[in-house]
Amino acid sequence: MEIELHHIHKRFGPVHANNDVNLTFHGGRIVGILGENGAGKSTLMKILSGYQPADSGEIHIDGQRVIYHGTQQAIQHGIGMLQQDPLDVAAFTVLENFIYGQPGGQQLPRKAAAEQLSTISRRFGFELDPDTPCYHLSIGQRQQLEIVRLLALGVKTLILDEPTTGISAEQKQILFDALRELATKDGMSVLLVSHKLEDVIALCHEVAVLRAGRVVGAKEMPATTRQLVTLMFGQELAPQTRTRENLQGRPEAVRLDGVTLRGKRLSVENLSLSIRAGEVIGLAGLDGSGQELLLRACAGLVKPASGRLYLGGHDMTGQSYRQFLAQGVAFGAAGRLEEGLVGGLTLTEHIALITETNTVIDWGRARQHTADQIKLYDVRGRPESRIETLSGGNQQRMLMALMPQKPLLLVLEQPTRGLDVDSARWIWEQLFTRQATGAAMVFSTPDLDELVTYSDRILVFYSGQVYEVKDATRTTIDELGRLIGGHFEEQTQ
Amino acid sequence: MKKPSLGLQVGLTILPIIVSLAITAILIIAAGADPRAVFEKVLEGAFRNSRSFANVLNFLIPLTLVSIGLVVTFTAGLWNIGVEGQMMMGAIFMTWGALNLTLPEPFQLIAQILIGMLGGGLWALLAGILKTRLGVHEIFGGVALNALANVLSIYLISGPWQPPEGGSVRSTVPFRPESLFTVIAPDFSVSLFALLIVLAALVIVWLALRGTRWGLQLKATGKNARSARLLGVPTTRSALSAFVVCGMLAGIAGTHRAITVYESLRPLASGGIGFLGLLVVLLAANRILLVPVITFLFAVIVGGSTRLKIALQLDSSLSGVLQETLVLMMLLFAGVRQRVLTRRDTSSTPEASPSTPAEAAHE
Amino acid sequence: MNEQLINILAGIVATATPLVIAGLGETIIERAGVVNLSLDGSITLSALVGFIAALAAQAATGSDAVALLCGLLAAALTSAVIAFIVALGGITLRQDQVAVGFVLTMLAADIAQFIGQPYTGQLGPQILITPIPILSQIPIIGPILFRQTILVYFSYVLMIGLWYWMFRTRGGLAHRAIGERPAAAFARGTNVNRLRYFYTILGGALVGVAGGAYSLSVKAGWTTPPNMSGDGWIALAIVIFGGWHPFRVALGAYLFAGLRALAFAVQSSPDIGIPVVLLNAMPWILMIVTLLLVSSGSIERLLQILPRSVQKRMRNFLRAEPPAALGTRFDPE
User: Fold this and answer.
1) Are residues A354 and A407 in contact, defined by beta-carbon separation less than 8 angstroms?
2) Tens-digit pLDDT profile for residues B170-197
């Protein structure tokens, strides 16, 4: 199957998300679609897979022009897309999700569908129990389910959007093997949207690079990371590194003594940990392995079931989140607008919430303060703009502006989620200016590179168990990937 | 962005009013009456003489009070349907004071009002605790607490507070003169003091919502409680304080209603004013300065329609029908306006209407 | 089992039926992701319109059966129209569903009061008990479940049918998906908003049938103030109590009717000495208590007491998560 895109245009208001895109994809090949945030790669893939129509332009399949509306029709033409957050229904079982969307009468073909599900799963080494509710699945398993579902629908071109975020090394291996087999054995086209260049290098036969809505380059693989970065950004970026200071003799910022944390599905038992001022602790693990519990406990949002927690020498066990804030904790949640910013409030109102501590608010002062922060953090917005009218990157900047300048402890949930390399760098720079004032830092991320680059120590979580990597500079991404999959016993300290 | 033409703007504002009047007119004709006669009778009922206008004002006072209170709870993202019961509880507590306290002239009434505020506030606090601590949605908690307040009033009136001569299950003994509001004139039985309370409540709440930390925290809680909490807003306390403020204002409203209209405690003394207040605030799109305008309009309609029964044998629920149709049409036409405007300007993403109270504040 | 008890139980099934039908109607709506808060007013107005239509049809045709059928249809239509306005306001016009529903519940109740006056106390046709030939002969169960009106049998069919539809058919998958994750439904080619309209109107029609059940069967006739007012709110609470599952919703309605019957029985025998005030307060205290129980925290605390092996099974059974997209809007783009 050969897909040609001719002169695809798509605008969102003033943004020209796709500007005259022309590309050709051949069967049997894995193509990496690269570009920084907002380059238009997701928009293009959504147009191709029927999630949204293009404003103009044509799609040709095997030389024939095709027009389709909606994902269902795209699938009928053989094009299916796996979203970054797989579009399944959490309340359904695996089998129900598999069946839903297939054509047929009202009667549910449970038996036949279960057989089909297990046949396809077995071929690729996926482990999917048909009767498990989907809210029990990991992201990796949900991806597998979605791939199986799309294959069962007869998809010949498979698009994957950032599929390696939040899955273990094992699952990644299984996924890559499956994709290679689909391309080489079945002659399918696989389009991989990713910002992880090592994945692209490992998997793809060729890459297409988008910048500001246009195709700016295409390249046959192999290529080096440096070549790809140059293609993406138009220039080379020096790798960001961190100089680690000697932390000996620094005061203790945080101490956990035999802390047990109970979550809904798992608990972290009897964890003891001491973090010095200026120290950076990275938390690794698949989503929901227990690292969220530790993060939220450090911020006072989850109260320990037993054990004691100290901040700067003060016993904070059982204290409220607000008392943690008063003690100098700064917490950044993963979702921007859902947790951290209040849609409907202006920038000034956000700043006033933080800085105006008197009963009566001095709006003049708050506005001035906001204008200063806007300048300092280069936020594109006015003091009276509502926060939801800002772009994602600017919301992130605003969150930074709201964070205290000299915290005792920074607690960060996936601080660079959804950001491109450039924006992520900016965030890390901001965080390290605070760390330089002596703030300790605890952060989680699904990005193993980030963990190795920025942490002093790494705690790996696997279903509530914790493994400590004492020196982050001496570990490798491969080792971390194995640990995340739960292979603690193979490690020798 | 293109500005929609003035004609369209004005049209979309006036149309819901016309449509709701038309629907009500159809209903009147269906009931065999003449809409124009109804209109005249309502105006007559409201403005015929000083006595009828006093009725309008005596309806206006509690309605405005609860509406101001509901602006506070809506700001915090709460659907305080329990406001009706909070009025009732205010009236019940006040009655206890009227029956059991003996204080000199102004203090007796002031004490009763304060006790009424306490009653409304406590009943609202209960709804708030159910909501914030125990996860019972305030709409259901409120409906149940409304019914419970009514049950309690019936019990008290037919039991412990039954008049000594016995017999009546309809009301307690009439209050003593010290327990009543001093009226401006015998045939204009409106209390200047009560009007001043309304004015004070309006100004204080308006300023507090605009210019204080409390008001800003309330707003943040209402828009997104989770984020607000992470930004250091005490969201539970915010929500509870909104409930209590609304409950206290409802308590004064219930107190005023029982004293002015019945001079005693009666079952259902709150008379649906709390629910009407919810409509007022929906119609005002939570803008507090619009509240007195709308409450005045509603008070005229309600006060005037008491004449309908006598003059035209029509049930006075017609006033409710008109008001509710009006609010419904305003809501629907707000949607129409959004659609029309976004169609003209496809580039702007439609914003969620600021008029609709945000999702309830969850912890 | 003694006859009196059987009669009481049969009475509970009969009085619970409108709650069952209304609860299932609202379940259909909320499973599709829409909240129809107008239940209380809808039921009241439907009861009145159904009664008026039945009276008119009776006068016109002289047949009670035709009259009752007309009455039920008119009742269903009334609430279906109200539900349509909820869908119009909440889906197409993007307004707060709770606000639209609340205004409608008040409007419907006021319209009922306005036009209902002349019908107060009038006699009209009534749905009679039709025993099912063989089933009604079964000891104990027969007289309780199968010596009832057609509406009661309808409620049985409805609860089983709805369960089958939601959990055993392809259409049911789409029904649940639009309430759980409309984006996933959209990706599978389901027209989310059109389907939401359909289920909202369908559920609304059932709410109307429940209203008709009051004025044509359970408490036949029309009173001022309407004697069913308040039950709509209880039906809404029962849906939450029932965890949006047809059988549990029905169970909730029976439990509620049972407790109400118990309260009534105790009230009519003064020698037991429970104050009337407590009995009047009972339904509402029950409503709060049931909601307290299902609010996740309390259930979790209760489950902690149980042994771990039982816990998981109980948790799955008691899982009362609302449809994830309940009350939210969905824009395809």
Assistant:
1) no
2) 888 888 888 888 888 888 989 999 999 9
DSSP B231: T
Q: To 10 degrees, what angle do helices C231-241 and C3-31 make? A: 80
DSSP string, A409-453: EEEEESTTTT--HHHHHHHHHHHHHHHTTT-EEEEE-S-HHHHHH
pLDDT tens readout for residues A123-134: 999 999 999 999
* Dihedral of alpha carbons C42, C48, C54, C56, sign: negative
Give the residue from A187, A205, A233 where a domain finishes: A233
Order of strands across the sheet that contains A457-462 = A329-332, A409-413, A440-444, A280-284, A457-462, A465-469
**Does one domain contain both A272 and A414?**
yes
The angle formed by the CA atoms of residues B273, B278 and B280, to the nearest 5 degrees, is 90
- A342: nearest CB among B211, B228, B234: B228
Q: Are residues A311 and A456 in the same domain?
A: yes
Rounded CA gap, C194 and C92, in Å? 10
Q: How many residues does chain A have?
A: 493
CB-based burial label for B285 (10 Å; 0-12, 13-18, 19+) = middle
pTM > 0.80: yes or no: yes
What's the CATH code of the domain at A268? Answer: 3.40.50.300
What is the number of alpha carbons within 13 Å of residue B59 lying toward its C-beta? 24
Domains of chain C: 3-274 (1.10.3470)
Say yes or no for a CB contact (<8 Å) between B227 and A341. Answer: yes
The answer to whether the Cβ–Cβ distance between B152 and C37 falls below 8 Å is no
Cβ–Cβ < 8 Å for B181, B258 = no
Q: Which residue of A has its CA nearest to C170?
A: A106
* A322, A325, A342, A391, best to mutate vs chain B, most B CBs in 10 Å: A342
What average pLDDT does the segment B70-97 reach? 96
Q: Are C27 and C18 in contact (CB under 8 A)?
A: no
Q: Of A403, A419, A440, which residue is a domain's last?
A: A403
Q: Are residues A433 and A397 in the same domain?
A: no
The C-alpha of B258 sits at a distance from chain C's nearest C-alpha, in angstroms, of 22
pLDDT in tens, A386-399: 998 887 778 888 88
CA distance A332 to chain B (A): 8
Interface-testing mutation among A42, A43, A45, A100, with chain C (most C C-beta atoms within 10 A): A100
Residue of A89, A161, A264 to mutate, testing the C interface (most C Cβ within 10 Å of its Cβ) = A89
List all residues of chain C from 160 to 179 with a beta carbon under 8 Å from chain A: 168-171, 173-174, 176-177
Domains in chain B: boundaries:
6-344
Judgement on whether residues A388 and A471 belong to the same structural domain of the protein: no
Q: Which residues contact B44 (CB under 8 A, 6 or more apart)?
A: B52, B304, B307, B311
Closest to B15 in 3D by CA, of B282, B351, B281, B335 = B335
Number of domains in chain A: 3
CA C92/CA C88 separation, integer angstroms: 5
Tokens coding B354: 């600021």
Domain span at residue A398 reads: 341-403
ipTM value: 0.90
How far does the CA of residue A338 sit from the closest CA of chain B (Å)? 6
To 10 degrees, the CA torsion angle through A357, A363, A367, A372?
-40
Residues A180 and A56 in one domain: yes
Q: Is residue A263 one of the residues assigned to a domain?
A: yes
Of A489, C125, A300, whose CA–CA distance to B229 is shortest?
A: A300
Closest Cβ–Cβ partner in A72, A73, A89 for C177 = A89
B304 closest CA partner among B62, B97, B53, B27: B53
Would you tell me which CATH number, out of the four given (1.10.3470, 4.10.80, 1.10.4030, 3.40.50), belongs to the domain B6-344? 1.10.3470
Record: contact B230-A343, CB cut-off 8 A: no
